[in-house]
Amino acid sequence: MSAGLPFRVDDLVAPCPGDDPCGEELGYGSEKFEIRDLAKELRSEEPGALGWKEVRDRATTALAETSKDLDLLTSFSEAALELHGVAGLGAALEVAGKLCEQYWDDLYPRVGEEDAADDLEARSTRLASLMDASGPDLPRRLRARELDTPPDTPNADLRKAFYQTAAAEIDACLAALNALEQAVDQGFEASFEKYDSVLPKSMRAEDFKPSGESLRDALRDRRDAVRDAFELAFPGADLDAAVASSDGEDAGADDAPAAAAAAPGGGPAGAPAGPPRTRAEAVNRLRQAVDYFRTAEPHSPVSLLVERAIRWAELPLTDVLAELVKDSDVLSKIRETLGVPEPKSEDDY
């Protein structure tokens, strides 16, 4: 589900370096609290605020290299939704489900025999932040996001593909939520069996299992809104049938790279056919190309060059020119020709 996104699900699920696959415990004053506090500050900002990139990048690095910590996972999920919408949220939920499935006993905060009841409560609270209306309240924020606008083009196939992609992303997100719920339910059952002798007899595993219903309802309502918009734009057409048909075509394709992209940690379901419809989608296609060349032709410089182009796509023209042209006189002439003002100091490069 992570193709086209600036992170890979498999990278975040892979064991941390060192002897402990879940890395180290991050105590008070550690980076995870800085990331969490930054995310809290950004909740009052406009959706997609620039600071969310810092949250995303720091959280992904920490999850991959330092600690499989549920607080980091929550901050990462917030940023993924803010920056990448449903596709980002779906990838974050996929990461969460796989972490809970593969590392339940070793995730942070860990559960110990001495304080098993309190530890299980702490874990339940953090998982609820991903799945219900507590904490960062992802369901409310998902509902607050307006639907993307279809491309302004007379090409009906492109406009249909836009709606099919939106619906497929929601379907993939729902599937990831279901998988997360299943992994969490099984994890709490296993913990109660493991610590049965030290837990109060009145406690039940069901009391600790967070429900994903509020997030599921928000996703389903969004799916309905996409279907309504599709049917308004194309009277008599059936979005569900179109998505199913698209999925069938993808599954039956003989193209090896497409099959690889559909593997876990690969490409998103219902990737649109045809030319990109937006700038963001064009950049996403470039990221998919990077993934392909890294796997199919690791000796080729193509992936490195395309990655550089992707980075340039996020920079202002002045910064790109400063990287490309090292001769200051030549750079000044280019700026003059293009009408780009000279920076006030070298710090502006």
UniProtKB/TrEMBL annotation:
Region annotation (Disordered) ranges: 245-278
InterPro entries: ImpA_N (IPR010657), TssA-like (IPR017740)
Low complexity composition bias: residue spans: 254-263
Tree of life domain: Bacteria
Matching Pfam families: ImpA_N (PF06812)
ImpA N-terminal domain span: 14-130
Protein name, as recorded: ImpA N-terminal domain-containing protein
